[in-house]
Amino acid sequence: MNAIVEEKALQPQARPVARYTWQAMALHWLLAVLIIGMLVLGYSLEDIPRNTPARGFYVNLHKSFGVLALVLVLVRLGWRLTHKPPPLEVAMPRWQAVAAAWSHRLLYLCILLQPLSGYLGSSFGKYGVKFFGIELPNWGWEDKALRGFFGGVHEAVGFVLAVLIAIHVLAALKHLLIDRDGVFQRMLPGGRKT
Ligand code: HEM
Ligand code: HEM
Prior knowledge:
single chain; Fumarate Reductase Cytochrome B subunit; 2 strands
């Protein structure tokens, strides 16, 4: 009885929430940093003049971290498909819960398609893919049209991904600063675990 009274007296922010497991959190934050960094690096490539050593260096850096992102995305998807997220015990309009679920699905789709299209585009290009200096298998052959096609997919998905991340971060900040309903804390260590 006392526990119930105490729980009700707590501010929404202080109420303990069901959280993601540490594995889910580690993968989320590692990939968040990596993918935001990759978007910044990808768009910065456009400012580096072609056929210069600096461009070769940064494109190879982009491909190497991109392959690392692909591996981590596959681990994360495998983890997610075999583990349920913590129950959402937070009161919110139904449309918001549905929008959150669909935006998460779209984020997963984009973070899978983005490195895959990058790898495929490079596989149909002249230089292939090196992972920090180690030559990786080519998934194609030299073909300008296919290189262009996957390059176009890479550019379009990159844009959708950037927009989705902006919405995702704004929504997370709204939960943290305005709603104060504990949704943000679900992805932070400490407190009650599921
Ligand atoms: C999560 C992973 C990745 C993200 C977020 C990402 C993002 C981007 C962005 C925003 C651009 C600039 C827009 C464009 O020109 O398409 C770009 C360009 C590019 N990316 Fe990625 N990328 C990723 C993974 C990869 C991978 C795995 C490869 C290849 C193995 C790759 C190869 C390239 C290449 C070759 C370019 C074009 C450089 C040029 O302008 O010639 N990317 N990437
Ligand atoms: C500063 C940046 C970020 C913040 C503050 C943030 C915050 C959060 C929070 C609080 C959740 C839990 C939502 C819930 O309980 O339902 C979450 C989930 C998620 N985030 Fe982020 N995030 C960030 C960046 C990213 C990025 C860059 C990506 C992917 C590109 C991403 C992908 C996801 C996905 C897919 C989920 C759903 C997890 C699941 O249920 O499987 N997040 N994020």
